[in-house]
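Record type: ASSEMBLY
Status: queued
Input:
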Amino acid sequence: MVWDVAIVGGGSAGLSAGAILAKDGFKTLVLEEKLRVGGRGNSFEYKKGYIVDFGIHALRLADEGAAAKVFDRIGEKLEIVEPEIQKLYYKEEWTDLPLSVNKLSTTPIFSQEDREELGPALTQMLTLKPEEYWNTPVSEWAEKNVKSKNLKWFLQDLLTKLLLVAADMKVTSTGELFDLVQIFVKTGKGVGYAVGGWKTILDRLTETIEASGEVRVGTKAEKIIVKNNEVKRVITKEEAIEANKVIAAFPVQKLFDLVDEKNFSKEFVKKSKSTLPSMGISIDYGFSKKVSDFHSFMCADPWMTATFTSNIDPSVAPAGEQLLTVFSVQPPSVIKNLETAKKELRKIEDTIYTMFPEAKGNVKWMRPMILDIVDGAALTITQSRDKRADVKTTVKGLYLVGDTCNGEGAGGDIAFNSARRCADMISKSS
Ligand SMILES: Cc1cc2nc3c(=O)[nH]c(=O)nc-3n(C[C@H](O)[C@H](O)[C@H](O)COP(=O)(O)OP(=O)(O)OC[C@H]3O[C@@H](n4cnc5c(N)ncnc54)[C@H](O)[C@@H]3O)c2cc1C
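Status: finished
Output:
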């Protein structure tokens, strides 16, 4: 048989594109090499009664965000809950996380001088055109426009690291920062979590595809065959799969393992292969009792952001127990040196026990991870917006989706948004 669309990769992007296309009447096959779908967004019952996402998996802009829009597109509503009690651990004290106008004007972390400087800096963020700042490093913009050391810390280490999952302000794109801040302010939304975890998203998308097509796990695509600049088929160990269109739904760095690079321009090949991801440390904890009422928190030193997911959505942990996920974005210099990475990890663990004294004696299980890929493309000045790969390739019938593509937001947003754009493109062209 000939499939209308074959999708290589059953992560958030591949499943989203597949679900939309299946809904639009395309006979769709998704190939996933692992035994379960989800990729970097995998989510499953990790321990009895615990639905654990792969690290924190928050949905930027909550019910107005990219995942919600994919669900709208397939005619469904994604149930999302938003955290309320959000705290900051700063200089060994707890305070409210200053991310609303109200909290910004009352936070004890700012002096009067900080507040006076904050107004003009925020005005710039909200009014300047992001497209004029794609190539400006955040550190350069902050240096030019802010004198206070404290405020520089807030704008870079709190806001930018948190929103863009960025480790190094000397290369992070100010345009990407402005764009996200402007969308947050325009929608008035924060972040949200899918009820039942990211698993709900994966399950529903898979079911939608399987109503008319197939999601085949444990099947690695070995090659994508292109002839006369047109995509022909996908080769697995078992068979040659004929398809009219093929979507490569995995990080672009790996594209040329499957498709001969002679089909693309030298510049595209070089840029794609050298795309740098963001990196970090993630720890999930299952606690045998409730150790905090917080929904989420940030710690300034060592830098971490964390979510007591089961305080926001009790369905993800057994009653009376607690699920905490902690994430710390890190530069390659830390992650690529195992000893240094482990040292950071231990610092984070120790700080968790200092912040929540009851945590230490009540760890039922934990999952520490040192990750050399978090978001597929770090939002740097050389990888900002349309410097990333387009959804449509120069090969007829071959498309790319995923978080290394050109698209709005960061990480998962880009995966969902690129998938929606790709599916719309295929739908309209057929
Ligand atoms: C710890 C962590 C925390 C994160 N937190 C957030 C967050 O809070 N919010 C957010 O929006 N994003 C977050 N992200 C990023 C988010 O997970 C990714 O942006 C998103 O999952 C990318 O989806 P994708 O489909 O583009 O790629 P992937 O998830 O990488 O999916 C690609 C899939 O393709 C499969 N594959 C690859 N090659 C082949 C082949 N040859 N044949 C068959 N299958 C193949 C892989 O197995 C994989 O399943 C986080 C990521 C991590 C790691």
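Annotation: The pocket of flavin-adenine dinucleotide is lined by residues 8-14, 31-34, 39-41, 54-58, 220-221, 249-251, 258, 282, 327, 371, 374-375, 402-403, 411-413, 415 (CB under 6 Å).
Annotation: The two ends are 19 Å apart (CA to CA).
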